[in-house]
Amino acid sequence: MAKGLCRTWHSGFRLGMALEKAKHLWRKKPLIGTLLVWTLILGCADYERFRTDEEHVFRGTVIGEGAASFIRRGFPAGSRMELEFDPNAIGQPVVGAFRVISPDGSMFIGQTPLESVAALAHDALSELVIPGASRMRTFLLLGRPGMGRLAGREVVVFVTLLKDGGIEVRVLAGTGDESRGDVFGVFRLFRERR
Questions:
Q1: How far apart are CA 69 and CA 129, in angstroms?
Q2: How confident is the model over 97-121, as a mean pLDDT?
Q3: What residue segments make up the domains of the chain, in order of their start?
Q4: What is the pLDDT of residues 7-49, one digit of tens each?
Q5: CATH number of the domain at 51-193, please?
């Protein structure tokens, strides 16, 4: 039950709603209610370490080296991503921002807000899980770059929280067909000082 309440909170509802459910249960069964509140406090706070602030950001490079890579399409090898993210804002219009810088220093994707997809709050896709023991949770988000190579296009962004405190970000524009200017890339990010 606590896991479901925690999931509800991270699907865009406030922790207050989950605590109200725990409070209601506490009135009927104080011991279970108390355990549930502590589970929510300790378990739900687990995503806090993925929130960026004025001093920290997530950075990393695209996976897949060499000229041709089956996992990297359209992104030059060595492209770097910088991600600002607040998992507690899921369900709000904007939950962060990202940008991708090419190895030559040019802006491949300019600073782009990460938008929640409102319809997902009540859909099975909000519970998307990418297989792998190291992955905790994946969020499906949308970006509309205003600068860079993908300016004017919509990109789908999958942000996956990892148990080691890192983040995987998958960026997809189009079908991944490089001849049409589409891209697909997986970035492995780590928390760093700005």
A1: 24
A2: 94
A3: 2-46, 51-193
A4: 444 444 444 455 566 566 556 666 555 555 545 444 454 789 9
A5: 2.40.128
DSSP class of residue 11 equals T
DSSP per position, 100-124: EE-TTS-EEEEEEEEEE-GGGGGSG
Residue 64: closest CA among 55, 54, 75: 75
- Quote the CA–CA distance of 157 and 140 in Å, as a whole number: 6
Distance CA 140, CA 129 (A): 10
Nearest to 161 by CA among 90, 92, 103, 87: 87
| Contact partners, residue 148, CB within 8 Å, separation at least 6 | 99, 100, 107, 108, 109, 110
17 or 182: which leads in pLDDT: 182
**What is the structure's pLDDT at 18?**
54
